[in-house]
Amino acid sequence: MHRLGPRVAAVVAALLVVPAVAATTPAGAAQVGADPVPVHALSVTGTGVATYPAFDPAVARYGITTTAETAGTVVVAASTSDPAGTVYVNGRLLTGPSTSVSGLGEGDEIAVFFVDSAGTERHTFIYLPARFPRLVPAAVPAGGAALGPGHVLLTLGLWTTPSPFFETAVDRAGVPVWVHTSTQSLDLKPEGAGRWSVSRATTGAGRTGTDVVELDAQFREVARHRTVGLTDTDGHDSLLRPDGSRYLLAYEPDPASGLIDSVVQQISSSGQVMFEWNSADHVDPLADRVTAGTQFATDYAHINSIAVMADGDLLMSFRHLSAVFKVARTAHDGYAAGQVIWRLGGRHSDFTFTDLQGNTDGGPCAQHTASELPNGHILLFDNGAWNQGPLCIDPADPMGATTSRTPTRITEWALDPVSHEATMVWNYSVADRYALFAGSAKRLAEGNTLIGWASSTKAVASEVGATGDLLWDLTSPDTPWFTYRADLAVVPDATSPTVAAGFEGAAFLKGSVAVADYTCADRGGSGLQTCSAPRASGQPLDTSTVGAHTLTVTATDAAGNSTSRSLRYLVAASAHQPDAQLRRASGGDWLGVHRYGTTRVTMPMSLRWASTSGSAYVRIVNDGLSADTFSVKGTPSGGGFAVSYWYAGRNVTTAVRAGTFRTPSVAPGGSALLKVRAAVSGSGVRRGDARDVWVVVRSTTSTSRGDNAVIRALATR
After folding, report:
1. Which of 323, 291, 286 is closest to 304 using CA atoms?
2. Can you tell me the mean pLDDT for 8-15?
């Protein structure tokens, strides 16, 4: 159990509605001449359950790690030392020391509100799928540059052993705002216009590799994209373009050569191939590769990133060539579409390399995520290689034996197209971090660089400043989970909260004690802020009047998403009580509502034509607590008036006159509708003559409970 230090806040006067966020002073602030500041206690427990980060009154969000045995159930224990204070769990008043919350699935959130003399304090716990790791930011020196805004996008997996993959967007404490479990995931990233994409295992018959899955603003799958005319779609990278086209990669086997070619396709929004590039047409697979003698020898190119450059050309990274290519997307300046304009690195580099100390450098080695910066420089996650699989170019002998180089470095290169020199202008590395495969580097708008360390399991992701100072370092301390890439994007909360009620549709006796029992839940990431109604959860419902009642509950989150739901309940006069209500056939209000006596309505009848009749409706409403059937007995014809009774279009006059007519079962609050017709049938009827038609309704379960309706048929001429 965690205990919070004192806080100072404005006193909240009303508890009927969970109030807005109250301003608070830092924990431990003195309170002079006032009541003691309440102390809060809060814990979430369960089978296989742990929470992170450590509890702090200033921290709003926490993760709940689970196992398969947790089975969606946790126990929330919370209290305030304020005797007049209250605690709400998902908007429901906590009436004891703890409550069990069940039915939780990945991404569901639990909101805990403390409402007392210190104001309103809110905390959100997100239920994580089984095996999702605890993520912990490592301590870094204070005073560095500000972090880039947004959430960090990860695809967590163990890679070297069987495991689920977790697609997730986490805050800087490592707590997800969204999570999804998959059998295989790569390359989660924003695509603009509220879209996201991720590569998941293909569902296409006869396909290999992955599908590029397009997601909407709520991360729901809306489309799957695959290469056209090929067998494979590779998940290392993809681009979804604003015009609806997409760039997709493939590792396509060539039966003739026995090798695996790297293919790039641009496919239009209608599914037509607009552009195709194949490594076999532009490199010598045997002479250019750096993987001879390794298990990767046939996968000689291994494309792993693609980007559209400022001039419209394509920037492609090839791990097994240790080279980055600039490729003409369209014909220009003497280059044909698809022609390689230059190679940065590899055995046939068009550039020589100089490091930060002015020394000759071998350039990229097994690199990932080549990107062009606004200043034209090229940023790389430069993996390097260990001596068990050397993949780096020896600058003294580019065509000779490959070499090893560790640790992994993130490098920025300035290219001189005239002198063909590539000069390192920025470099970041950590002595004990080497990513054998995968990884990413992204330059942020503020000048910081976000790093995804992939197979270097000392950290999951980092952010470093322009001067190389470490600003943020996310670790997975319990088990070395890692991510193929890390990206940064603001993840808006596009999901509205939900409202549910245990009392909805229930029936209560008039004057009985019934409690407003409802909950609100959120899963969009911003956190539930209010769960409010005219009667707070745990307060008595209005049972003073018989009939249908509604209580409107409104849930809002911190992003401004709102959901209102009108929850219906019934108040009954007794356990069994029919209510006979009257209305003219021509319309108007129902008469005799919740009045259990005699209800009358006068209907004018014409003396001139014997065929002229008038009609009225008797609505038999079940004002009891349970389903019931009702007997109906009605006045027969006589005195010059013909009376008939109709139900659901059927003439039921004989049964009603005999008192043997029974309605179908009527649920509490439901009704059965009887139509009564009256007509002048005798020549002796004069103007002003009348006949009272009685409709007597009784419960068949409790025959002492009934109601009457009287229709006066009046001859008017």
Report:
1. 323
2. 25
CA atoms within 13 A on the CB side of 533: 29
Q: State which amino acid sits at residue 700.
A: T
Yes or no: say if 248 and 286 are a contact pair by the CB < 8 Å rule: no
Whole-angstrom distance, CA of residue 557 vs CA of residue 521: 9
pLDDT tens-digit readout, 231-278: 999 999 999 999 999 999 999 999 999 999 999 999 999 999 999 999
> What is the reported pLDDT for 12?
24
First to last CA, the chain: 85
Helix (H) or strand (E) holding 285: helix 285-288
Q: Are 378 and 324 in contact (CB under 8 A)?
A: yes
* 3-state SS, residue 266: strand
Mean predicted lDDT score pLDDT of the chain: 92
What is the rounded CA–CA span in Å between residue 689 and residue 683? 12
Q: What is the pTM of this model?
A: 0.84
Read off the amino acid at residue 708: N
SS (H, E, C) 295-307: CCCCCCCCEEEEE
**Confidence (pLDDT) at 610:** 54
372 and 416 in contact (C-beta within 8 Å)?
no
- The two three-digit tokens of residue 717, written as one number: 């001429």
Backbone angles phi, psi at 658, to 5 degrees: -85, -10
- Residues 486-490: what's their mean pLDDT? 97
- Closest-CA residue to 234 (of 263, 259, 254): 263
Burial of 611 (0-12, 13-18, 19+ CB in 10 A): exposed
